[in-house]
Amino acid sequence: MAKLSVDKTLSKAKTLAKRGEIAAARDLYTQILQSFPKNKRAQDGLASLKSGPNATSITPALDQKIRHYISLLSAGQNAAIVAQIPSLLKQHSKIAVLWNIYGVALRASGELTKAQHALAKAAQLSPSDPDIYNNLGLTLHDLERQREALSAYETSLKHRPQDAEVLNNYANTLKSIGRFEQAIEFFEKSLALKPSYAKAHFNLGNAYKEMGQLDEAVDAYQAALALDPKFVESINNLGTVYKTQGKVDNAVEAYNAALKANPVFASAHNNLGNVLKDQGKIDDAKEAYHKALAIDPHHAEAHRNLSSLIKYKEGDAQIKTVADLLETPNLPTSERCSLHFTYAKMQEDLGQTKDAFDHYVKGGQLRMSLLGYDITQDKQLFEAIKATAPSIKENAPTLYKARATHSPIFILGMPRSGTTLVEQIISCHSQVHGAGELTLLARHGHALRNGQEAATAPAILQLRNAYLEDLEKLSQGKPFVTDKMPQNFLFIALILTALPEAKIIHTRRDPAATCWSNFKHYFSANGIGYSYGLSETAEYYNLYKNLMMFWEDMFPDRIYHLDYDSLTQDQEKETRNLIAHLGLDWEEACLHPQRNTRSVATASQQQVRQKVYQGSSQSWKKFEAYLGDVFEGL
Asked: 3-state DSSP call for residue 236?
């Protein structure tokens, strides 16, 4: 904004203020301050505005104090505002701008409930002020009262619909409750108004990441970094996407770049630990988690990640630290959830099964609440899949190639049923690349699978071509590539119709062991909401079992069923049968999956670094006394 333009805008704002058009004047002053945060005339003009129709007049003395508090707010001196402004509010309780300043300072100080009350008071006094409602929305978002936050943003946008910041904040709250497509729409509206808004690019990347649209997420993060090369959160999240894509070296490079820009960025140390853990570098991973916790002893995710690498004994200092954190009031729900899972693991290691069980239950309840999970959604999904499957099978496209250059091997089943071990075994073969848990089918085929898009032969052929094109990029030149996303059992009709050369390995394990292992694990992915309730887990298992029977009837002899417990009891026989079924020559390396050095990014990563062992399917029985009859119908 040129100086002449600034002068004209200031003059217009002053004229509007004299006419009593306070909201319009405030918009112009705010516009100037977005480009020139230290513009004194805009700061003074904003401070001098009256606070709405219900406010009393602002005297010159009070105006001077308001300007003082705005300058403190700009300088980040929130503690001084929180300490000083209440006495002023006793004398001037009907001045909305004072309540607004107080609420913003309280939020910055972490006093969210008080901030919400102050901002609600400001909104009551000045019901047409979009800035107040934006601040109220931010505070309600922090309090995890997302529906109310959306309502506050909507009120702000009603008065100022072209506000890029409020549109971004609104989208961010939509994202937090899983409304990703709608969130992306509003992030894009924000960026259309303000293309240089690095934070909106970053948040757009987060939404794409949550949806599994990883290439789009990379583009958004890189757009944020082009605007702000030292945006460490964007560098950090770019590393997380690279990790998910299997680009381990790129991920490490990104985390190190974030730490170079900010050596005390705890989340980057934590994420670097995750990559090192996936690579089997356990001591290095522990060191990274300890660095994160040295910087931020409250980092709940680092506590949880570290706990997966430790066998706890009485007196370990981290146990008391986590117990104390759980007693912290006003702890964000997501952090409390992680800490419950961490403490449950600690108590299980100590043999305190009742305490462990109680904390698994509490952590699961919080996680299910955060995800907004309702098993009715999955019941409807399974019915839609069954209803759509016959039309998919009937519309198989004509294929002109005998087989793809890179043939997929799908390893699927319930999570925690042995899929990771089976992929480790198969990927030991010289002709196979283990690509891990791919989101390709969900990205390209969910609308076809659910019946939202007509399952025509051209649509199925398009899915085939898109899947194989993406698979080739991951193949590392190997003729066979594993896709170990367990939930691909939901896509079997599409797999066998679009990719008839594919092999499907269905792993299964003792039902009670599978369900318990699902329940006790914290999954970083959001699509496994059933697992955080015991009855929901058992119910989901029965939905899965019924669907697998449906597939077997529809596609007889097309699915190879591998029993995890049989594999651990007679490893060589089951491994030889598996390799023969895949049409591969026998290689002795397949008997030694613990020697496989590939990165493993699942909850089973520690088990598959060991020799194949028996007995893991019995570990749930030490909790049997607390389970009631929840597993009886499996």
From this structure: helix
Tell me the pLDDT tens digit for each residue of 521-549: 999 877 899 999 999 999 999 999 999 99
118 lies in the same domain as 189: yes
Q: Provide the β-strand partners of residue 411.
A: 505
Which of 64, 77, 127, 124 lies closest to 104 in space, CA to CA? Answer: 77
Average pLDDT taken over every residue of the chain: 90
pLDDT per position as a tens digit, 329-366: 878 899 999 999 999 999 999 999 999 999 999 999 99
Q: How many CB atoms lie within 10 A of CB 597?
A: 8
- How remote is the C-alpha of 224 from its chain's centroid? 19
Q: How many whole angstroms separate alpha carbon 102 and alpha carbon 79?
A: 10
Cβ contacts of residue 316 below 8 Å, gap of 6+? Answer: 310, 346
Alpha helices in 160-279 (DSSP H): 164-176, 180-193, 198-211, 214-227, 232-244, 248-261, 266-278
Quick one: 490 and 586 in the same domain? yes
Amino acid identity, position 313? K
Q: Is residue 383 in a domain?
A: no
In a domain, 273, yes or no: no
The two tokens of residue 228 are 């702000």
**How much is the pLDDT for 609?**
41
Alpha carbon distance 250, 449 (integer Å): 33
Domain-located, residue 265:
no
